[in-house]
Design goal:
By secondary structure, the chain is mainly α. The protein contains 9 helices and 5 strands; from the N terminus they run βαβααβααααβαβα. Bound molecules: adenosine-5'-triphosphate and L-tryptophanamide (LTN).
């Protein structure tokens, strides 16, 4: 099969509180790639509902993420900005991929372990198969490059494994191209301001843990002043 044409796809969940990590780790990089690639940027509302979402808030947050894409410089005239639930083929392909991915592969996903917490029995089944839906987002468009933050590296590896197994099982070499993660820029993993061992996250209950894209200069200054720092004294030089 001939070389797949380069195509970028990435997604951001409409779960509110877009922060500096989302910007530096993902959205900023979306902008630069538009020069050289055909790009699709998706607001992944089906991913968001793996944990409970108030329907009205979900709709508002979906528009907010789309607005953030545009404000950051994503060009919807020459590229594609859309929300996942509007394209039923994401869920359809995800089902097929649920039948390709192995339980053992999903059991290794660290994000599921973190998000499900101690009471795994109470996590939604959707949260467990979430990485298969992400693989469907990418493979549906035969995307070749996927700009994401560091935390998504494992999910991208899974998407490659799924693509490879599908191609092998159905004797269809190259049917799905292997998607390449693009983990780039000065800050691929921005840490929480409250706990330096965790990444900055939308879902952290403390607003002081993150700098959001809508914070004022005063709010940012306050958060930085309150941020947890190293307990050791500063070195002289
Ligand atoms: P949640 O806390 O709800 O899981 P999130 O903050 O991880 O949300 P996502 O919508 O899951 O945000 O991620 C959107 C993009 O931002 C992804 O490419 C992800 O890798 C990136 N990203 C998220 N947090 C960080 C971070 N702290 N540093 C760098 N990139 C990040
Ligand atoms: N799982 C990702 C969001 C996401 C995504 C995608 C990223 C869903 N589908 C496809 C890249 C490509 C997250 O939680 N950050």
């Amino acid at each position: 099969m001939h070389e797949p044409s380069p195509r970028v796809l990435s997604g951001v969940q409409p779960t509110g509180n877009l922060h500096l990590g989302n910007y530096l780790g993902a959205i900023r990089n979306f902008v630069g790639l538009q020069e050289s690639h055909e790009c699709l940027y998706c607001v992944v509302d089906l991913h968001a509902i793996t944990v409970f979402q108030d329907p009205a808030e979900l709709a508002a947050n979906t528009r907010e993420v789309a607005a953030a894409f545009l404000a950051a410089g994503v060009d919807p005239k020459n590229h594609i900005v859309f929300n996942q639930a509007q394209v039923p083929q994401h869920a359809e392909l995800a089902w097929v991929l649920n039948c390709v991915a192995r339980m053992g592969w999903l059991n290794r996903m660290t994000q599921f372990k973190e998000k499900a917490g101690k009471d795994r029995e109470k996590a939604s089944v959707g949260l467990y198969v979430y990485p298969n839906l992400m693989a469907a987002d990418i493979l549906l468009y035969r995307a070749t490059h996927v700009p994401v933050g560091e935390d998504q590296k494992q999910h991208l590896e899974l998407a490659r494994d799924i693509a490879q197994k599908f191609n092998n099982d159905f004797d269809a070499a190259g049917f799905f191209p292997m998607p390449e993660p693009l983990i780039q820029g000065p800050a691929t993993r921005v840490m929480s301001l409250r706990d330096g061992s965790k990444k900055m996250s939308k879902s952290d209950p403390s607003d002081l843990s993150r700098i959001t894209m809508l914070d004022s200069a005063d709010e940012i200054a306050k958060k930085i002043r309150k941020a947890k720092t190293d307990a050791d004294v500063l070195p002289d030089t």
